[in-house]
Every structure is written in C-alpha cells, then in structure tokens.
Write a structure and sequence with these properties.
Mean pLDDT of chain B: 82
Order of helices and strands of chain A: HHHEEHHHHHHHHHHHHHHHHHH
Number of helices of chain A: 21
Low-confidence stretches of chain B: 120-128
Mean pLDDT of chain A: 87
Helix content of chain A: over 70%
Radius of gyration of chain B: 21 Å
Largest sheet of chain A: 2 strands, antiparallel
Order of helices and strands of chain B: HHHH
Distance between the termini of chain A: 35 Å
Structural class of chain B: mainly alpha
Number of domains of chain B: 1
Number of strands of chain A: 2
CATH class of chain B: Mainly Alpha
Shape of chain B: elongated
Structural class of chain A: mainly alpha
Distance between the termini of chain B: 69 Å
Largest sheet of chain B: none
Helix content of chain B: over 70%
Strand content of chain A: under 5%
Oligomer: heterodimer
Radius of gyration of chain A: 22 Å
Low-confidence stretches of chain A: 448-460
C-alpha cells in the first residue's frame, strides 16, 4: 500500500462507516464503533500529514483513471491542516460532549465529517459541490435532530438558504465548464488564461462561486441562517458546526480563488478583488455591530463569526502571501476558539441555565477553570498576544500596510477594538459582575430571527460530574491549543508557505 | 448550426433564466413552506437545464457507445444525474421538516408558525 492509497480512505472510512451507527442503533456498541471510526480517521489524517511533511504533497486519481477524466484527490500542506482539524475536532467533540445521541444521528455526525474531509482533499470543482451538499445535508439534519419545532424551523431556514448557496456554486461550476471544458482544478488553472480572465463567462463563474461560498461562510447580507441554526441546535451540534461548518467552506474559497482562478485573475479583474474586499469589510463592520448589540450568548458568538469570516475574506482579497497566510491562520484560530466557546456556553446553559450575557454574572466563582478558558478564547478572537488570533491579525495588518491598503489596516485595528468591547463585556460579567442577576431576566435581541424562549431548563439542571469534567477538558484543550498555536504560529506559517507562495 | 437549432438552444437559455428567476422569487416571497420548497426545486431545475443545454450539439445523438458520431457531450448529463440525486435528498429533508412543523402547529404558513411561537413581539432595542 502506497501513501496515496490513504487519500480515498480518508473519505471512504467515515462515509461507509456512517452505516454502522444506523444499523447498531443507540446502543453502547454503536457508540463504541462510531468513536472507533473517528479515532481511526484521526490516525489516518495524521499519517497523511506525516507523509506530506516527509515527501511532499500526496496525489491520486480515484479508480486509477487518467487525470483528465477521473476525480483527483490531493493533500498538500494547506489542505493537511484542515484534514487534521476536521478529524481531530470531530473526534474530540464526539468522545467528550456528545451525550443525547441516538443511532441515526451518529450517522449524520460521520456523514458531516466525511463531507468536510472530502471538501478538503478533492481537486475537482464538481466533486467539491457534491461534498458540500453531503456535509450540508448532514448539518441540516443534525440541527433538526434536537427535539422541538424551534430546531426544525431553524434547520429548514438553514436548508433553504444553504441549498441556494450550493446551487449558485454549482451554476458557477457550470459556467467554468462551458468556458473551459474541464472540471479538474489543475486543468482549470491553465485553461482559464487561455479563455481570457476578463471573459464574461469566467467573471460570472467567479461571482457565482464566491456568492455561493459566501452563503456557507455567512458573510454579511447572507448571514441570517447562522444565528438561528447555532442557537437552536443541541449543544454538541452547535459546537461541531461552529468549529467546522463554515471553516471548511472558507478553506474551499481560498483554494478556489488561488488554485483555480489564481492571483493573476484578481489582478486582471480589479472589480472581483474590490468586490471581495468590500464583502469582507462590510462583514467585519456589520458583524461587529450585530455582535455588540446581542445579549443571547449563542447568537452573540454566531455574529462574532461573521466578523471573523469577514477578516478571512479581506485576507483573500489582499492576495499577498502574508494576507493569504493570515486568512488561513484566522480560519484555524476561529475554529478552535469557537469550538471551546460553544462547549463552555453549552455547559453554562445546562448547569446554570445561563443563556444571556446578564446570566453570566460571577459564574467564574462556580466554574473557574471554564471561565478562564472562555477568557483565553475571547483573547484569541480579539487578537491579543500570545494567542493564534493575534498571529492572524498581525499577518493581516502587515499585508495591509505592505500593500498600502490603509483603509484595511484601519478596519483591522477597529475590529480589534470592537471585539475587545464585546468580549470585555462577557469576561467582565464572568469575573467582576457586582451581584448575580435573576437568571433569564434580560430580553433577547434578535436580528429578524427568532428569540430563544423554548424550554429553558430550571437553573442548575443536573449535569453529571463526568460530563462536566469532559466538557471542562475540551475548553482547556481549546485554550491550550490557542496559546500553543499562537506561540507556534511561525511554524504554521512556514508549513503553508511553500503552497501559498506557489499560488502568488 | 441551422437557424432553428440556434433558436431552440437560445430558447432553452431563456427558459433556464426564467426558471431560476421564478424559483428564487417563489422561495423568497412565498409564505407557504411547501411552496417555498417547490420554489427551491424550480431554481435547481433551472440550473440543471443550463447544464443540459450547454451539452447540446446540433445534430448530436444520445451519448451511447456506437461507431457513428456526433454525440452530445455526455459529461454534463452525468454531472446532472448526481445533482438531481442531491436535489431529491434536499427536497426529502425539507419536506420532512415541513411535516414536523405542520404537525406541531397545524399550518404550512411560516408567518403563522413564527407568530404562534413568539407570542408578544420581542423589543428590538439594544440592552444597556
């Protein structure tokens, strides 16, 4: 068996394994098998990364077909980061905080993992669409798997918006195919200059693909599904979605812009670059404002993702090696921080019935370790050293100054101040609030969506000590990872550098 | 390319644009959740039609294996088969959710469902 045989396994293992929990049902055996499959997935992801580190990118075409007609799979340093992120996050959240699972929804968990892994390893734009929809369908069903119709309505909303996004992406792929006659990323890269970057077909394809992925990223005017979906789903599902749901489409955007359209396209069509930049800046501004006026913590965190993904898109639009590195680092930073935060929020919700910022008063007294973890995660979202969020913003600011994009530099600085203001509000409540306020007293501000009002558990719902230990462990792991990645951010930047510099 | 076939192909593009437009309009404007799902279906079908039209070739035959050409391009047909499967799955999940909502609230209207859920409206002012 050669290293390139591992690539199809990365997708096939969770995809085929998804049958197991369905057949075994909600039994102990079903859970053990699912955990086993996810553990094997982590081992596979690490093995592939080791191969990439020692002997360069791994490449294969499924079924041994010629590359022009087959479906190619590639793992290079950039995609290996996301392969490992998907595998580890999915495994960690499953073995720690997944509690109220039944057999069929464990299948969805595996399908979600398979779809996202497929998106990271594929080198074919149509194949990317199929994996986008596999992960999307699993995500809609996971959101709906919580009891009650609030989750069902949020899932339906998510489904309608998400499918429009994916279909717009498919339309963009159709335009690319009409223009070039190929779907493989490597062939598209060479065929597009021959067609002409300013050909209406190519520009239309770019716009459709960017808007389609923008829906999945929840960039500003396309964001409305996100707060509802994150606030209405079960705590383990919202943690999984917040960690991976938009991160991998973000990676796909980076991959498509630089590996398919390339930096020369952005240079040849200034309007595309300006459009991306405007979308990113508007998302940063709107995300900051919406976060700031939010009181429900889960919706609050969802809005802060809109700001974070805005910064990622700004990095893509600047299109210098530092900016693209910043975009990738920010994607990882947001994923790790949001994963830890949603686990912490879920724990506070179940243990203390705390759902709004006001409810968080002095929770640090009762759960000091989790509170410190939350503070670390917020420090990373704000961009304080030595966390990885600081590294991402540092590279972005550096790129903005290098390209003399003063407006961008200003917005990055401003976003830090706004983040500091809203993160400070929560951290201040946790540690320094003068006196506890009655739980559930503050009304919830919504953005045209639905207020969280359903089945709020009485304060102090029984949480098993084992669950509390495991959830606390995840928050600690996320905090340690944020600081560790921050200290090792130079290594992370050097790891992706060969690919990023090859793109630009 | 003869005039008629050119017209029929551009006619197909017009239908594609209409389907996409009408589908999106129904999706956004309609209050009935089942009709919303139908709008989503129309939108997707429009995109499928775009792929099929792009594969069209004047005088081309069905892409089956035989010695005599010319054929229409088989690849978009294969892609669209996959996309149709995806579309059917999305529709199934969407309708399952609509059934759950209508079982609980006795209506397909999104406005009524939201009204029943929320009760008195939530203040839109930011909290101090």
């Amino acid at each position: 068996m050669t290293p390139s045989d591992l690539l199809p396994l990365l997708v096939a293992l969770p995809l085929v394994g998804a049958v197991a929990p369905f057949v075994l049902g909600a039994t102990r055996r079903g859970r053990v098998v699912t955990a086993g499959i996810l553990t094997a997935q982590v081992a596979l992801a690490l093995a592939v990364t080791v191969v990439v580190a020692t002997s360069g990118p791994v490449w294969t075409v499924v079924g041994g077909l010629p590359a022009a007609v087959g479906i190619a799979l590639v793992v290079d340093p950039v995609s290996s980061v996301f392969v490992v992120l998907v595998a580890v996050a999915s495994w960690l959240l499953y073995v720690t905080v997944r509690t109220d699972a039944t057999g069929p929804t464990d299948s969805l968990w595996l399908l979600f993992t398979a779809g996202l892994t497929g998106m990271t390893v594929t080198a074919d734009v149509f194949n990317l669409y199929v994996f986008l929809e596999i992960s999307g369908l699993a995500a809609y069903a996971l959101v709906a798997s919580r009891r009650g119709t609030r989750a069902a309505l949020a899932a339906l909303h998510y489904l309608l918006v998400g499918t429009v996004g994916a279909t717009l992406y498919l339309l963009g792929v159709g335009y690319l195919y009409v223009a070039t006659g190929t779907l493989a990323m490597a062939d598209l890269r060479t065929a597009l200059p021959a067609v002409g970057y300013d050909s209406p077909l190519v520009v239309a394809a770019f716009v459709l693909i960017a808007v389609g992925l923008g829906v999945k990223l929840a960039l500003f005017p396309l964001h409305a599904w996100k707060p509802d979906a994150y606030a209405a789903s079960a705590l383990d599902v919202s943690a999984l979605l917040a960690t991976l749901g938009s991160t991998v489409p973000g990676y796909a955007l980076v991959r498509l812009v630089f590996d398919v359209f390339t930096g020369s396209f952005l240079a040849a069509v200034p309007l595309a670059e300006v459009g991306l930049l405007a979308a990113g800046l508007v998302s940063v501004a709107a995300g900051g404002y919406l976060t700031f006026r939010q009181t429900d913590v889960r919706r609050f965190l969802a809005y802060s993702s809109i700001l974070q993904f805005g910064l990622v898109v700004v990095g893509v639009a600047l299109a210098t090696p530092a900016a693209v590195t910043a975009a990738l680092v920010l994607l990882v930073a947001n994923a790790v921080a949001k994963g830890g935060l949603y686990v912490a929020v879920g724990l506070f919700d179940r243990e203390f019935g705390a759902t709004t910022v006001a409810d968080y008063a002095r929770l640090a007294r009762d759960a000091p370790v989790v509170a410190v973890g939350v503070a670390c995660a917020f420090a990373s979202l704000v961009g304080l050293p030595p966390t990885v969020g600081f590294a991402g913003k540092w590279y972005l600011a550096l790129a903005a100054v290098e390209t003399r994009a003063w407006l961008v530099a200003g917005v990055v600085l401003l976003s830090t101040l706004v983040s500091l203001a809203y993160a400070g509000r929560v951290v201040e409540r946790l540690f320094l609030a003068p006196e506890p306020v009655a739980v559930g007293s503050a009304p919830v501000v919504t953005d045209g969506g639905e207020a969280a009002s359903e089945a709020k558990p009485a304060s102090g719902t029984a949480v098993s000590p084992a669950f509390r230990r495991r959830a606390t462990g995840v928050v600690v792991v996320s905090a340690v990872a944020l600081v560790g990645l921050g200290l090792g951010s130079t290594a992370l930047a050097e790891w992706v550098a060969p690919v990023v510099e090859g793109w630009l | 390319m003869t005039v008629t076939s050119a017209l029929s192909q551009s006619g197909a593009y017009v239908v594609y644009a209409l389907l996409v437009g009408v589908g999106l309009f129904v999706l956004v404007d309609e209050d009935d959740l089942v009709k919303k799902v139908v709008g989503l279906n129309l939108f997707q079908t429009g995109v499928f039609l775009f792929f099929i039209t792009a594969a069209f070739r004047t005088g081309g035959r069905a892409p089956l294996v035989s010695a005599a050409g010319p054929y229409v391009n088989p690849l978009p047909h294969v892609l669209i088969l996959t996309a149709i499967v995806v579309g059917v799955s999305v529709t199934a999940v969407a309708l399952a959710l609509v059934v759950r909502l209508s079982d609980a609230h006795g209506t397909f209207s999104e406005r009524e469902i939201r009204a029943k859920r929320e009760g008195p409206t939530v203040p839109e002012e930011p909290q101090p």
